[in-house]
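Format notes (please read before filing issues)

Several people have asked whether sequences and structure tokens are stored in separate files. They are not. Every record keeps both together, in the order shown below: the sequence lines, then the token lines. Line labels are part of the format and must not be stripped during preprocessing.
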Amino acid sequence: MDLSIIIGIMIPFIGTTLGSACVFFMSKKMNTLVQKILLSFASGVMVAASVWSLLIPSLDISTDLGTFAFVPAAIGFLLGMGFLLFLDHNVPHMHLDQKTEGKTSSLQKSTMLILAVTIHNIPEGMAVGVVFAGLASGNSYISIMGAVALSIGIAIQNFPEGAIISMPLRSEGLSKKQAFLYGSLSGIVEPIAALITVLLSNYILPILPYLLSFAGGAMIYVVIEELIPEASQGQHSNIATIGFAIGFVIMMILDVTLG
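Then the structure lines:
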């Protein structure tokens, strides 16, 4: 397997690991303003990557369908959105700053958050794997820059997730090393899911347009359901708008000029 593919699918995990490392430097929690900037910037990058790196290639690959070239992209996109909607309704789910009430202990809440983040990382890993699988097949519609940018966007999103998992565990009595380890491991499913997808590339190439748009739908769902609400609530909501715009434009420029 090409080294660039291995590095590419590891980038999101690196983001989680770096976020988890905040437990060594922060005593309580990540600065709210910093979290808003990271989440909104990642939102812009991921939306642009979903369009230029996932949906447009899906449409381009399907040009042989003529007037119906939109069908794979439309079906895949809706299935991706639906799949994430299904996960949200059927697995433990907590927002990054959500507080539960009642008799649930802090440790139980931390465990629920770890499980929720881990499960929701699987489709993100698959999205990265689909893009790099298409890249490995030599598909001219998928660029290395677009694939890497998608990985970086997810990594930026994973940074605050890693921090918000590791630091509560530290406050519950775990050592800094243990909290860091658990926070990092919550993101290990992403490279695993990506690697499995790449290894199955020979089987997925016939339905690549559907899988690309499926990944696009999943990414857009994460942005709409998770990232933008988290970045926009409370004070300084305009920071989310600015961060999104900057992330979107940077990703668009990089993909068009270097893709």
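For reference, the curators noted about this record: Confidence is low (pLDDT under 50) at residues 98-104. The chain is about 75% helix and 0% strand.
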